[in-house]
Automatic annotation (TrEMBL):
Protein name: Glucose-6-phosphate isomerase
Pfam family, one: PGI
Active site, UniProt feature: E359, H390, K518
Organism (species): Nocardioides potassii
GO MF annotations in UniProt: glucose-6-phosphate isomerase activity
Entry keyword annotation includes Isomerase: yes
Role according to the record: Catalyzes the reversible isomerization of glucose-6-phosphate to fructose-6-phosphate.
Family: Belongs to the GPI family.
Pathway linked to the protein: Carbohydrate degradation; glycolysis; D-glyceraldehyde 3-phosphate and glycerone phosphate from D-glucose: step 2/4; Carbohydrate biosynthesis; gluconeogenesis
Keywords annotated in UniProt: Cytoplasm, Gluconeogenesis, Glycolysis, Isomerase
Alphabetical list of PANTHER family matching this protein: GLUCOSE-6-PHOSPHATE ISOMERASE (PTHR11469:SF1)
Isomerase found in the keyword field: yes
Length: 554
């Protein structure tokens, strides 16, 4: 797989898509008036019901997209990923997050190692640890049971656990709370530790590399906070052993930090940080929701993996959604993609997807090092509905930019509340879902000038009150937001991201783009602390900004 990357823009399918785009006239009203068209595009992937019919793609476009996938060998690359080939070319690594959710009965040997056995060995230890914390068997150094778990990590070692902790709030154990520290802004540690009782607090230091400045700094801050506040007489080593555990691929560095490796949970270099929440990186979540629910989450991931691996192209939801995103990005000029969950519990889902999609596909060279001559990556963003409706939907409805949007909703509410209006009981979830259905309809159909006039609107206001319509959306529904469904949703977006990266011929699994800023921060630190010589080496703008900082520091 690592030889040459196909330049997708040289394929016949790309040329066909370019031609189709030139003459393409969207007509979602016609599409949605055709029950057969809608039925053919209402797909099932595990427990997800996915309606693709409101996308700006007719049968010709879809056929050309499938041809594109064939010409750049998306299926072969997918199979290479599942088999553990080193498709992360620039780091010479396998990409095997899918192995994290294989059942214990499966087997997969990669680079001479049975990875399924390894995964389940760690998982069993992590589950046992989570149970000890949940049951109160694991106590702090003074013998009190743990009430708060603080995950210290950033990027993939933070965003997944936080997002899922929020999403699965109804599944959490009472009396146990998780908090998360990620930012090196001291405000984060300062605020998060506020009000905590050191005797009942357990820290999980989560870092794939155990070399990330933010995480190590925050871990040291938390260690000092703990040791300063525990009752005198508590032995420091015992305190660290009872209040600090770690999750990392670098167990030697964990030991150097002073954490007993008996209390550390490993994973492997074939798990990318942004694909790691279903490894031991999810330890805080395991403690919060328990091993059984975590196992359901993994089963959900696996169900979507199997769908992606085995479903034929026409029925393959991640493949089709990924290809549609390529169509919007490379042929219809979209730059961004909105993800709009109609679930307050998914309020961190768009932030999670930002790392997943943008760290993966924000690349300007193909995996063989050749520069791309076409756009890659989409800016993913979003907020839960209906809040977004009262904030940024205006631009999606009437603005000049094309913003494809994924709408996500659940048939059953997580909180079933009724509102009493004029003596009637109103199901609030139904009110909520009516908005979900209304928005995709409004975006698709719009409102013509004649329809506006028919409402008696003054002619001077007709254009301002006209909605162009033909704004593309995908609707994703599931029976309820369960751990399994959450796993399915995450895996869906992992594989959409994969498909896009495979078409673009890029390495979706490295992240060299985050290095330069890290290096410069290290170089600049002395200047920030007053080293005039280092400051003098900087460009004029950086010097002036540092001068401003120093003048206003105190
Ligand atoms: O931002 C770069 C990155 O390497 C991410 O890919 C990763 O999730 C994050 O930093 C944290 O890394 P680590 O888990 O090694 O601390």
């Amino acid at each position: 797989m690592s030889a040459g990357a196909t330049d997708p823009s040289t394929t016949d399918a790309w040329a066909s898509l370019a031609r189709l785009a030139e003459s393409y006239t969207p007509d979602l009203r016609a599409q949605l008036g055709d029950a057969g068209f809608v039925a053919d595009r209402s797909l099932t992937a595990a427990d997800l019901h996915v309606d693709l019919s409101k996308n700006l793609a007719d049968a010709d476009v879809e056929a050309a997209l499938f041809s594109l996938a064939d010409e750049v060998s998306v299926a072969a690359r997918r199979d290479a990923m599942f088999a553990g080939e080193h498709i992360n070319v620039t780091e010479d690594r396998a990409v095997l997050h899918t192995a994290l959710r294989l059942p214990a009965s499966a087997s997969l040997t990669v680079d001479g190692q049975d990875v399924v056995a390894d995964v389940h060995k760690v998982l069993d230890r992590a589950y046992a640890f989570a149970e000890r914390v949940r049951s109160g068997e694991w106590t702090g150094v003074t013998g009190r049971r743990i009430e708060t778990v603080v995950n210290i990590g950033i990027g993939g070692s933070d965003l997944g656990p936080v997002m899922a902790y929020e999403a699965l709030e109804p599944y959490r154990q009472d009396g146990l709370t998780c908090r998360f520290i990620s930012n090196i802004d001291p405000t984060d540690a300062g605020q998060t530790l506020k009000g905590l009782d050191p005797e009942t607090t357990l820290f999980i230091v989560s870092s794939k590399t155990f070399g990330t400045l933010e995480t190590l700094t925050n871990a040291r801050l938390c260690k000092a906070w703990l040791l300063d506040r525990l009752p005198s007489g508590a032995d420091a080593d015992d305190a660290v052993a009872k209040h600090f555990v770690a999750v990392s691929t670098a167990l030697d560095k964990v030991a150097d930090f002073g954490i007993d490796t008996d209390n550390a949970f490993g994973f492997w270099d074939w798990v990318g940080g942004r694909y790691s929440m279903d490894s031991a990186i999810g330890l805080s979540l395991m403690v919060a929701v328990g091993p059984d629910h975590f196992a359901d989450l993994l089963a959900g991931f696996h169900a979507m993996d199997e769908h992606f691996r085995t479903a034929p192209a026409e029925a393959n939801v991640p493949l089709r959604m990924g290809l549609l995103n390529v169509w919007y990005t490379n042929f219809l000029g979209a730059h961004t993609h909105a993800v709009l969950p109609y679930s307050q519990l998914l309020h961190r889902f768009p932030a999670y997807l930002q790392q997943l999609t943008m760290e993966s596909n924000g690349k300007g060279v193909r995996w063989d090092g050749e520069p791309v001559g076409y756009d890659t990556g989409e800016v993913f963003w979003g907020e839960p509905g209906t809040n977004g409706q009262h904030a940024f939907y205006q631009l999606i409805h009437q603005g000049t930019r094309l913003v494809p949007a994924d709408f996500i909703a659940f048939a059953r509410p997580s909180y079933d509340l009724k509102d009493e209006v004029d003596g009637d009981q109103v199901d609030v979830h139904e009110l909520f879902l009516a908005n979900f259905f209304a928005q995709t309809k409004a975006l698709a159909f719009g409102k013509t000038p004649d329809e506006v006039r028919a409402e008696g609107v003054d002619e001077a206001l007709v254009s301002a009150r006209t909605f162009p319509g033909n704004r593309p959306t995908t609707s994703i529904m599931a029976p309820a937001l369960t751990p399994s469904v959450l796993g399915q949703l995450i895996a869906l977006y992992e594989h959409i991201t994969f498909v896009e990266g495979a078409v673009w011929g890029i390495d979706s699994f490295d992240q060299w783009g985050v290095e330069l800023g890290k290096q410069l921060a290290q170089q600049l630190r002395p200047a920030v602390s007053g080293d005039a010589a280092v400051a003098a080496e900087q460009d004029a703008s950086t010097q002036s900004l540092i001068r401003y900082y120093q003048e206003n520091r105190r």
